[in-house]
Amino acid sequence: MSSRKSTKASGLIIFSAPSGSGKSTIVNWLMQQHSELRLAFSISCTSRKPRGEERDGVEYFFLSPEEFRQRIEQDEFLEYEQVYENRFYGTLKSQVERQLSAGQNVVFDVDVKGGVNIKRHYGSRALSIFIQPPSIEELRRRLESRATDSAEAIEERLAKAEYEMTFASQFDRILVNDDLETAQDEAFDMVSQFLDSCE
Q1: pLDDT score for 8
Q2: Is residue 21 helix, strand or coil?
Q3: What are phi and psi of 54, to 5 degrees?
Q4: What's CA 102's distance to the chain center, in Å?
């Protein structure tokens, strides 16, 4: 008879950050370099049409705006946002439960409000990590060096980042991405310690 302790419960890891803080780089590094963590992205829903090679149930679940609204009314989302008219993104509770049941440790790469909502829903079953740049000045330098945004777009991103940084205290851990390698190692330590504590 197998003891229940032999199977660890799955955990949930929430990453949120202002744009340009290096969140996606850190999350992708964890997933590619540390398969022992059994991390899997939460598959979100969107009401936009698939792009290129995107497949339903792989990159996203593709819903019509009407279906999306219906599911909002039925309280099926952990978090969602309407980016602009008829363009929604969100995380279904049922999908997260399916992934946890499959033994995956579910990773969320979400905006700060979504991160706070998911943490509130799952409590101690989830670890929420807020990644922030060393300063707004450094964030400006990073965004300008990317050379992908207009000056106006950069100002908008910086204003949004300042607002998002006010949410940092609502996360379990704050990770300052001053040096990428150090930040990656710190993220690994945070995630692996948390998963070790999951029973």
Answers
A1: 64
A2: coil
A3: -60, 140
A4: 19
User: In the chain, what is the straight-line distance between the N-terminal and C-terminal CA atoms, in Å?
Assistant: 19
pLDDT above 50 for 6: no
Our CA angle for 67, 91, 68, nearest 5°, is 10
CA angle 81, 83, 87 (to 5 degrees): 95
Q: Is 60 helix (H, G, I), strand (E, B) or coil?
A: strand
Full-model pTM: 0.87
76-108 pLDDT tens trace: 999 999 888 999 999 999 999 999 999 999 999
CB under 8 A, 24+ apart: contacts of 90-93: 90/44, 90/45, 90/46, 91/42, 91/44, 91/45, 91/118, 92/45, 92/61, 93/121
DSSP character for 125? G
